[in-house]
């Protein structure tokens, strides 16, 4: 049997270039990753049998397009479909991108990188982008490491499709043992097969066991020049310090809500979906800084809108639908609820809570919504600018409250709502707890702030309310029963006493003795002696009531030791004077009476009959000016 031109070099199925399987790029464009499936090509039900392959001339067929096959592929969620493929698509992480760009440009690349942050901010995506940037060779095959990988060379395409043999990605959550790490240690000795660097991406690295971390330490500290380690984790505090010290750490930040809104709006435009700005604002707020969480919610919102495409909204992602889907409180209902709180309308408040609960709004979400409103009102008041709100109506309401409420009222309102939020979260019946918490806030709103209360008490005192304010206090008596308050010193001492007050000079004299070490004599003089005359070289005194000792000789002997000149010391008969200790006690009692007679205190005692005046520290009372000790 002679050979035909078709099989002159072999069998027909060995020579005829029949393409039966699509490229990985076609599979990725169709929504199916080559890592997880080797499905047949688009438009082909199965691979043709070699024995019945028709020739192109005998049965001409148009080449199947990718578009019909895309309809048969599984739907790819937005979080996977719009995963960043370049650093320019990675939003919100500009400091990290700048650092990496400078390191690549200056050839100062670390051997190990650690990406940490909350879920969905781009840790794994960043690790893959670094792998692509380090191994990119450019469209012409001559390029080097760059912060802007071309995305078309073989390493870039293979890494994007997850099939590059020199980029090994490992999930530490399912490979936690030392044996898994031992495989890495054995493999790093061999050079990369086709790439510039052999790269190990270990996701959720904090899940590795303690022994696995210890086994990796030596290799992580001194890896071969062709090996790079890229770690990603959400719980960096669980990593040993020995690992942290061997890596270059990047803390990926939460994405700001405004950036998320712009990102979601861009994706809606690419998907041909119309969405209200307020709806995107709600989704961005619910995402809590996570791009993946936000895209998952957006995916759900688009599906929720498509269920009712025949509606007048035409499948549009509206704020009302997102609110219903997420179980959030209506912003208008939240504002009405806060208005009821501030106006003190308890009946309307309970009715509004019941309406929201009937619509499916959880009590905890209701409390969070009110706290968010109070926070935005406070920020608008402090900033003095326009309130942060997606609609003009809400901005106007927030600005109005910011102008009417004081800073003290807003802070007190926040504290009460925060306490109520904690109670609702731990209560056996959240609805009842929310009602009681908001009623407490409502009634507390009527209470004046401390400044206004003090001013009101001052006005009451100045008006002379109460009989206690009208009647003067009774004069105080000393512990010895002698009248001290209101008495002039001349009437408390004999007629021979000088007109000036001798107590001040006597206090100085006793302090002078104590400073020179005669503490015992000083204590006796303070407790027993009532001064009559104290001057240059003269001391006349009497003994206070209840004391009979004669201190004259002891005082004279002590002064002889201390000074050269002679002193005249004379102890007179009991004149009924007060010692220094008795004088100080009488002064304290007088001060207490003066405080009790103050109009402010009188008004406070009238407003609060059971109140008592209790000194914080009895030793901290200032002495009356006439009796203060000079330094």
Strand numbers in spatial order across the main sheet: 2-3-4-1-5
Give the strand tally: 8
What characteristic shape results from the CA principal axes?
Answer: elongated
Which structural category do the helix and sheet elements fall into? alpha/beta
**What's the mean pLDDT score?**
76
Query: Largest beta sheet, briefly?
Result: 5 strands, parallel
**Separation of the first and last Cα atoms:** 132 Å
Describe it for me?
The protein has 631 residues and is an alpha/beta fold. Helix content is 48%, strand content 7%. The chain contains 28 helices and eight strands. It has helices at residues 12-15, 24-29, 66-72, 78-81, 94-105, 123-135, 154-160, 178-187, 210-221, 241-244, 257-271, 277-287, 291-306, 319-326, 331-343, 346-358, 363-383, 392-404, 407-426, 430-444, 450-462, 467-470, 489-492, 502-515, 519-528, 552-562, 580-596, 599-607, and strands spanning 112-116, 167-171, 198-203, 227-233, 248-251, 529-535, 538-543, 568-572. A five-stranded parallel β-sheet has the order 2-3-4-1-5, with helices on one face. Strands 6-7-8 form a three-stranded mixed β-sheet. β2, α8 and β3 form a beta-alpha-beta unit. α24 (502-515) runs antiparallel to α25. The radius of gyration is 44 Å and the shape is elongated. Residues 1-20, 31-70, 465-499 and 620-631 have low confidence and may be disordered.
Strand and helix map with partners:
Elements: H1 12-15, H2 24-29, H3 66-72, H4 78-81, H5 94-105, E1 112-116, H6 123-135, H7 154-160, E2 167-171, H8 178-187, E3 198-203, H9 210-221, E4 227-233, H10 241-244, E5 248-251, H11 257-271, H12 277-287, H13 291-306, H14 319-326, H15 331-343, H16 346-358, H17 363-383, H18 392-404, H19 407-426, H20 430-444, H21 450-462, H22 467-470, H23 489-492, H24 502-515, H25 519-528, E6 529-535, E7 538-543, H26 552-562, E8 568-572, H27 580-596, H28 599-607
Parallel strand pairs: 1-4, 1-5, 2-3, 3-4, 7-8
Antiparallel strand pairs: 6-7
Helix pairs in contact: 6-7, 8-9, 11-12, 12-13, 12-14, 15-16, 15-17, 15-20, 16-20, 17-18, 17-19, 19-20, 21-28, 24-25
């Amino acid at each position: 049997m002679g050979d035909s031109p078709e099989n002159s070099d072999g069998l027909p199925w060995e020579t005829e270039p029949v393409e039966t399987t699509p490229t990985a790029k076609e599979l990725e464009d169709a929504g199916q990753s080559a890592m997880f499936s080797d499905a047949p090509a688009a438009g082909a039900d199965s691979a043709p049998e070699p024995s019945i392959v028709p020739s192109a001339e005998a049965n001409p067929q148009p080449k199947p397009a990718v578009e019909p096959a895309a309809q048969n592929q599984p739907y790819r969620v937005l979080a996977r479909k719009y995963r960043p493929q370049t650093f320019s698509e990675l939003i919100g992480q500009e400091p990290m991108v700048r650092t990496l760009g400078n390191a690549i440009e200056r050839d100062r690349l670390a051997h190990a990188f650690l990406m940490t942050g909350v879920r969905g901010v781009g840790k794994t995506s960043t690790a893959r982008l670094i792998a692509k940037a380090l191994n990119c060779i450019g469209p012409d095959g001559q390029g080097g490491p760059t912060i802007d990988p071309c995305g078309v060379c073989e390493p870039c395409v293979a890494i994007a499709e997850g099939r590059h043999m020199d980029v090994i990605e490992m999930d530490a959550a399912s490979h936690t043992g030392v044996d898994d790490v031992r495989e890495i240690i054995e493999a790093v000795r061999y050079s990369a097969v086709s790439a510039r660097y052999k790269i190990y991406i270990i996701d959720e690295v904090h899940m590795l066991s303690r022994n696995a971390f210890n086994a990796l330490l030596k290799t992580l500290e001194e890896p071969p020049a062709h090996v790079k380690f890229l770690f990603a984790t959400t719980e960096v505090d669980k990593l040993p310090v020995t690992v942290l010290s061997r890596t270059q750490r990047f803390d990926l930040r939460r994405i700001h809500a405004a950036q998320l809104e712009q990102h979601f709006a861009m994706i809606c435009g690419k998907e041909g979906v119309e969405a209200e700005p307020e709806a995107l604002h709600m989704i961005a707020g619910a995402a809590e800084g996570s791009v993946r969480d936000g895209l998952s919610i957006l995916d759900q919102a688009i599906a929720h809108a498509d269920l009712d495409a025949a509606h007048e909204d035409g499948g549009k992602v509206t704020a009302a639908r997102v609110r219903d889907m997420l179980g959030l409180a209506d912003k208008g209902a939240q504002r009405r609820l806060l208005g009821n709180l501030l106006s003190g309308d308890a009946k309307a408040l309970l009715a509004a809570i019941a309406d929201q609960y009937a619509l499916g709004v959880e009590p905890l979400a209701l409390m969070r919504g009110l706290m968010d409103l109070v926070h935005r009102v406070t920020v608008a008041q402090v900033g003095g600018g326009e309130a942060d709100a997606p609609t003009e109506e809400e901005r106007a309401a927030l600005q109005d409250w910011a102008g009417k409420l004081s800073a003290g009222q807003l802070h007190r309102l926040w504290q009460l709502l925060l306490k109520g939020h904690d109670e609702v979260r731990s209560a056996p019946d959240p609805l009842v707890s929310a009602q009681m918490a908001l009623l407490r806030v409502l009634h507390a709103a009527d209470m004046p702030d401390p400044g206004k209360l003090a001013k009101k008490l001052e006005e009451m005192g100045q008006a002379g309310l109460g009989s206690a304010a009208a009647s003067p206090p009774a004069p105080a008596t000393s512990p010895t029963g002698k009248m001290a308050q209101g008495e002039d010193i001349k009437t408390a001492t004999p007629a021979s006493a000088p007109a000036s007050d001798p107590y001040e000079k006597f206090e100085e004299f006793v302090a002078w003795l104590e400073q020179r070490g005669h503490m015992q004599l000083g204590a006796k003089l303070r407790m027993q002696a009532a001064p009559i005359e104290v001057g240059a070289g003269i001391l006349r005194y009497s003994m206070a009531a209840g004391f009979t000792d004669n201190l004259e000789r002891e005082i004279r002997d002590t002064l002889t030791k201390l000074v050269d000149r002679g002193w005249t010391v004379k102890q007179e008969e009991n004149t009924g004077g007060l010692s220094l200790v008795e004088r100080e006690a009488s002064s304290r009692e007088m001060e207490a009476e003066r405080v009790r007679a103050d109009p402010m205190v009188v008004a406070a005692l009238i407003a609060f009959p059971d109140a008592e005046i209790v000194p914080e520290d009895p030793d901290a009372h200032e002495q009356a000016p006439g009796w203060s000790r000079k330094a």
